[in-house]
Amino acid sequence: MAKKQQTTQDFVTVKEIRDGVVILKNGGMRSLVLASSLNFALKSSDEQTSILMQFQNFLNSLDFSIQISVMSKKLDIRPYLALLEDRQKEQSTELMKMQVKEYIEFIRTFVENTNIMTKSFFVVVPYDPPIMNVGNNPMTKMFPGKSTQAEKNTASDEKFAEYRSQLEQRVATVEQGLVRCGIRSAELGTEEVVELLYKIFNPGDTEKPIQLN
To answer: Where do the structural domains in the chain lie, given as residue ranges?
Structure first.
């Protein structure tokens, strides 16, 4: 018998994305929080000590695990060059058009010869719901651990709001801790999560990075 060929989706642990929440195939739930960067080297010695202490207190205050992820990506300069080309067309004198054109060529050459990277920082906040009780179905009692797909979906729909509330409480705790460290943060919505996962699984594509408001 021929062995079933595995697809890329078989290796992806994400089942679906609902209301900004990543739902894994094992039932786990994850929220993604985008965090701003902090130029630690430019801080004074006292400021550095204060930031480290606040971050230590933040980590010690958590009663759940988090994952801090850094995404590095080559800077896509094409949108900026397109903007400059539009500005070039709007110039009223040939001298200004020539200067803008020279600037465009300088930027393009500089980027081609220099590997400029952008970094995005994310905090993955987890919540693993308890095993769901699918009711008093006699088949469930006869075969523990067995349930129909319809029962699983119903239980999941009924409990999703409750579990999401638990997850949002954890997200709020993380965001408050980051604020005390001087770091701005924003929880990603459904479209932003989809965009982020697309970038992760398609690293060759260059798109506009996610921005904090």
So the answer is: 12-73+122-201, 76-115
